[in-house]
């Protein structure tokens, strides 16, 4: 269980709940993704590395957005500022990233076109399409015992979280300045917690989905290269994230073994 005495985690959850409160009716268009979603799904696990960062990541379904409240106005009224254009909102040094699946974000390189919300409220990100399909509703609680809030929000499933992480790792693979070792470790956390038969079936179903199909098919190739191959970049990132805390050979071996098991479950999943 998360140690609620760790201020950054308590504050990260507080600011995330503030952001969800600020969104109001727009919350029906939101899915929690990223590290806080992974923690919610898999817990702390056995690794000696902190399970999530102090940021919050929210995927938006453009078709479900209302015209009001405007995203920017809602965030500004709640004390957030646009820290990085487009899509990164911050308060109390905690960042909330508003993201739209790249295939649904309209033209342009970075900013998502969300009329009437403009092009700076959210940014486009590859691989989030699966989060709009694979999610469940949960009550997300505050970590501060003095904060009694509990907010209902959609949280991406393990299949969607894996697809998104694989796209992120693949996108940054050739750019060392953008490497985030924790992304590799997040994939290992998912693999350690997963029921491979269930996750393999879910991924196979996502490949057939009209929204998530293409990015999930691409993720299968990324997975093979990044993790099933013991020397893959994803495995290297997981090892780097645990330097000084875990045995490198053990982490690399775990990535390869678990990834191979999931790849087989994915390959043999029933076609239904």
Question: Would you write up a description of this structure?
Answer:
- It is a single chain.
- This protein is α/β, with parallel strands linked by helices and 272 residues long.
- The chain folds into 2 domains: 150 residues, Beta Polymerase, domain 2 (2-Layer Sandwich), CATH 3.30.460; 110 residues, no CATH class.
- Helix content is 43%, strand content 15%.
- Strands 1, 2, 3, 4, 5, 6, 7 and 8 form an 8-stranded mixed sheet that branches.
- A hairpin with a 3-residue loop joins strand 3 and strand 4.
- Helix 4 packs antiparallel against helix 5, helix 6 crosses helix 7 and helix 7 runs antiparallel to helix 9.
- The longest helix is centred in the C-terminal third of the chain and has 20 residues.
- The radius of gyration is 18 Å and the shape is globular.
- The N and C termini lie far apart (37 Å).
- The relative contact order is 0.13.
- The model has no long low-confidence stretch (mean pLDDT 92).
Write the layout of secondary structure elements.
Elements: H1 7-23, E1 30-33, H2 34-42, E2 56-60, H3 71-77, E3 81-84, E4 88-91, E5 94-101, E6 123-125, E7 135-141, E8 150-156, H4 158-172, H5 181-193, H6 196-207, H7 213-228, H8 233-241, H9 248-267
Parallel strand pairs: 1-8, 2-5, 5-6
Antiparallel strand pairs: 1-2, 3-4, 4-5, 7-8
Helix pairs in contact: 2-4, 4-5, 4-7, 5-8, 6-7, 6-9, 7-9, 8-9
Compose a concise summary of this entry.
The protein has 272 residues and is α/β, with parallel strands linked by helices.
In terms of structural class, how would the helical and strand content be classed? alpha/beta
Determine Rg (CA atoms, Å).
Answer: 18 Å
Predict the CATH topology of the largest domain: Beta Polymerase, domain 2
The proportion of residues forming helix, as a percent range, comes to: 40-55%
The amount of beta strand, in percent, is 15-25%
Regarding quaternary structure, what we see is single chain
Supply the number of structural domains.
2
């Amino acid at each position: 269980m998360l140690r609620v005495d760790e201020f950054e985690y308590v504050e990260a959850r507080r600011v995330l709940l503030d952001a969800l409160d600020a969104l109001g009716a727009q919350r029906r268009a939101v899915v929690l993704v990223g590290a806080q979603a992974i923690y919610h799904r898999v817990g702390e696990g056995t690794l000696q590395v902190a399970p999530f960062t102090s940021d919050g990541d929210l995927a938006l379904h453009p078709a479900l957005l209302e015209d009001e409240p405007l995203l920017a106005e809602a965030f500004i009224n709640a004390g957030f500022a646009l820290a990085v254009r487009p899509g990164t909102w911050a308060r109390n040094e905690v960042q909330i990233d508003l993201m739209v699946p790249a295939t649904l974000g309209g033209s342009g390189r970075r900013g998502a076109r969300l009329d009437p919300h403009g092009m700076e409220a959210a940014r486009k990100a590859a691989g989030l399409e699966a989060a709009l399909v694979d999610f469940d509703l949960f009550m997300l609680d505050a970590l501060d015992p003095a904060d009694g809030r509990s907010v209902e929000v959609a949280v991406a499933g393990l299949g969607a979280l894996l697809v998104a992480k694989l796209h992120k790792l693949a996108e940054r693979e050739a750019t060392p300045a953008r490497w985030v070792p924790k992304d590799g470790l997040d994939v290992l956390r998912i693999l350690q917690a997963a029921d491979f038969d269930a996750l393999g079936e879910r991924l196979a179903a996502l490949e057939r989905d009209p929204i998530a199909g293409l990015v999930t098919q691409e993720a299968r190739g990324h997975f093979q290269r990044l993790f099933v191959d013991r020397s893959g970049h994803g495995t290297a990132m997981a090892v780097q994230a645990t330097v000084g805390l875990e045995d490198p050979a053990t982490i690399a071996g775990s990535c390869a073994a678990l990834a191979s098991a999931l790849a087989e479950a994915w390959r043999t999943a029933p076609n239904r």
